[in-house]
Each structure stands twice: as C-alpha cells, then as structure tokens.
Amino acid sequence: MTIQLRQICLVARELQPVIEDLTGILGINACYVDSGVGKFGLENTLMAVGRNFLEVVAPIEENTAGGRYLDRRNGDGGYMVITQADTFENQRAVRQRALDNDVRVAWESERDGWHLCQLHPGDMKAAFLEIEYDKFEDFNGNWMPVGGTGWEDKVKQDVTVDYLGVELQSGDPVELAELWGKVTGLPVERQGSELSIRLNNVDLRFVEAEDGRGPGLGGLDIAVKDRDRILSAARERGCFVDEDRVDICGTRFYLRDA
Q1: What is the pTM of this model?
Q2: Each residue of 15-58: pLDDT tens digit?
Q3: Of residues 194 and 239, which shows the higher confidence score?
Q4: Which of the four pLDDT bands, split at 50, 70 and 90, describes residue 193?
Q5: Rounded distance, CA 152 to CA 10, Å?
Q6: Cys bridge to 32: 83, 146, 163, 225, which one at CB 3.0-4.6 A?
Q7: ∠ at Cα 151 (145, 157), nearest 5°?
Q8: CA–CA dist 157, 109 (Å, integer)
Q9: Pairwise CA distance, residues 48 & 124, whole Å
C-alpha cells in the first residue's frame, strides 16, 4: 500500500490575512479557490507546495464544523491531513479499517473516478484524515481538490520546496500513533522517544501536546531553500520566529534545509 500526503488544510477565523501571511512568508502561490466548500459554510484558498497543496478554510456562516473546531482549539490551526491512495482497493481498505476501529466517516463523495472519504476528527483524536483515490493514479499531477490540472504554473520552489512531515499532538501520543497506524495500515516506528508513521513522501510524527490547545495538527515540517527570507518575512509580519520555526495560522512550521 502507498499513501501520499497531497494536501494539508488549516482553519482560520479570517481567510485573507492568513493567505497573505502564508504566501508572503513561505514564498508560495495561491492556485485555486473551491466554491464547493460553501455548502459547508466555508470559504477557502489553496496554495501549491511543491506538487502538493496547502488549503485554508474559514467559516462564513454560524455553527459550522470549522467554526466549532476553532472554538474547541482556541483559534486558528491545523484541520485536515488529506492523502491519496495508490489504488481504489487500498482507499477502500483504509475506509474499512477506520470503521473496524470505531472511526466514523464524516463525509464521502464519489464522481467520475474520484473517491473521497473524510474520517471524523473526534474519532481520529487529532485531525480529519481524508483518504482519496482518483482514476489518474498520479501523485504528482491531477488532483481534484484543485480542479484536476491547471495549477502547475503556480508551483514556486525557490523559497519553500515541499512538505517533509506532519506533527500530530495528543495527551497520549502512543495511543494516537497506534490508532493512525491501525487505520492507515502502516507500521508505527519508534526512534528514541519519537513515534512516527512513514507515508510515501512525509512522516507523521506523534508528540505530547504541550501548547495548552489539546489534541490536534500542531505543526508541519517543510523543506526550504531560503530560510533567511522566511525568517525575515515572518518577523515583518509579527509572527513568532526562531531559527528553525515560524508560527503561521496557529501552526508551527519547522524549517528544514533542502
């Protein structure tokens, strides 16, 4: 089985200031707006991160799932880990393992060879896990959440290159890692005190929640080519900065030299 991280989704109270921070600091380009999220009471913008994507959603109506998540985690932050399976059978297998482990399907959709399944963040105990399959079976190209194709000219990698890891936090990281391992069907690896699951292109890291915000998607590891530019832009925008990290949209971006 091969599972690729294709997209991370963050949730924010206000969309545009966060998009300006992310594009200005990370040196990435907006590439798509999906009007379809309006049915969930949200607006969004997606940005290209290498051949993968970073999405931000914000509520535009009262009593939305996104708004409740903001309240529960006391502000902007990580929301969804969105992945692509290499085959339809493997996507279905992840769905079935979720059900076998008492994880609810929060939303699913099928059309024209594209199959989407979102697993409930309460049951996954940190974030939505979304597993998708599409008939093109291309980890570097066609991706339906950005309209399929047409985003390629927005890829810009002179500052930020790509994702390397996802940090999921919990009061019990061992339990969290074991659950995500059971659902994905991938082994949990331990190196010292660090627990991780290896996807095709990133590591999912499971850590103790120490920021007072409870379980959630707390951080992202990103490969960068111009650390100094990122740090300078983050300071100018009033974000938290140290030599290896900037905080944007309630999310820790850990800088790793490409």
Answers
A1: 0.97
A2: 999 999 999 999 999 999 998 899 999 999 999 999 999 999 99
A3: 239
A4: confident
A5: 22
A6: 146
A7: 110
A8: 32
A9: 26
Q: State the DSSP H helix or E strand holding residue 232, giving kind and residue range, or none if neither.
A: helix 227-236
Q: Which CATH class is domain 160-257?
A: alpha beta
Task: Write the pLDDT tens digit of every residue in 93-135.
Answer: 999 999 999 999 999 999 999 999 999 999 999 999 999 999 9
C-alpha dihedral, 118 to 120 to 124 to 129, nearest 10°: 20
Same fold, 3-138 and 160-257: yes
220 and 163 Cβ atoms separated by less than 8 Å: yes
CATH architecture group of domain 3-138: Roll (3.10)
CA distance 161 to 171: 31
Contact 205, 174 (CB under 8 A): no
Give the H or E element holding residue 71.
helix 65-72
pLDDT at 192: 85
Q: Do the beta carbons of residue 6 and residue 143 sit within 8 Å?
A: yes
- How far is 183 from 81, CA to CA, in rounded Å? 13
Q: Domain coordinates of the chain in residue numbers?
A: 3-138, 160-257
